[in-house]
Amino acid sequence: MVFGIEADIVWTSIDGGDTLSAAIIAPIASTTQNVSQRLDWLGTVHGRLGYAAHNNLLIYATGGLAYGHVDYQYSLTWGGVAAGDFARASESKTKTGWTVGGGGEYSFGRWSLKGEYLCYDLGDEDLSAQAFSAGVPGSIVVFHNPDFETKGHIIRAGVNFKFGGHSRQPVPLK
Predict the structure, then answer these.
(1) Segments of 54-169 assigned E as strands
(2) Which 3 state secondary structure label does DSSP give 110?
(3) Is residue 27 part of a domain?
C-alpha cells in the first residue's frame, strides 16, 4: 500500500454564459437575460491511497479539498414600452468544496508516467437581483434569483522525474 498527499493550483480560462431573449407581448415588451460564470483559478489538496503492483505500477484513489476563485454575473433588461427596466447582480469570491478521483502511475527508473481523473465541486451560488423600473426611480418590480453550479471534471497526464541520491531499500526486520 502507498499513501501520500498532493497539492496543486492552476490558473484557468474556464468560463461560460448564456443569453435568453424573448418577446413577451410583441412589440410591446421584450426581455433579455444574460448569465455568465468564470473560474479564474483552481487548486486542490488531496490524499492518495494506492496499491503498488509489480514494484513499478501504482493504482490509486484520491480525494480531498478543492478551492477556487469564481466570478458570477447576471443581468436582465426590458425593451418595448417599459424600455430600460433592469436587474443586475454579481459576485466574485473564493469558494471551497471537494474533489475525488483516481489514477495510475508507471515508474521506470527515475522517470514515471502518470494519468489521473478528478471530479471537483465548489458548490452552488444563489444571487439575488431586484428589477427596477426606469420610469419610476427606486420602485422594485420583481426579484430574480439565478442559481449557479461550479463543478467540473479534470483529466490530466504527466511525466515525473525523481531528484535525489540513492533509492532506499527496505531494512529487514530481525
Answers:
(1) 57-80, 86-108, 111-126, 129-132, 140-144, 147-161
(2) coil
(3) yes
Count structural domains, the chain.
1
pTM attached to this predicted model: 0.77
CA 93, 99, 104 angle in degrees (round to 5)? 140
Tens digit of each residue's pLDDT (9 = 90 or more) over 120-152: 999 999 988 877 665 555 555 667 788 899 999
CB atoms within 10 A of CB 3: 9
What 3-state class would DSSP assign to 11? strand
Among 11, 24, 113, CA closest to 77? 24
Note whether residue 67 is domain-resident. yes
Listed residue (44, 46, 40, 51) closest to 64, CA to CA: 46
Amino acid occupying residue 32: T
Please check whether residue 168 lies inside any domain of the structure: no
b/e 93-109 (16+ beta carbons within 10 angstroms → b): eebebbbebbbebebee
Report the chain's C-alpha Rg in angstroms.
25
Task: Scan for cell 530481525, then name that residue.
Answer: 174
Domain that residue 56 falls in: 2-161
User: Higher confidence at residue 84 or residue 162?
Assistant: 162
**Which set of grid coordinates corresponds to residue 162?**
525523481
Residue 148 inside a domain? The answer is: yes
Is residue 25 classed exposed, middle or buried when 0-12, 13-18 and 19+ CB atoms within 10 A define those classes?
exposed
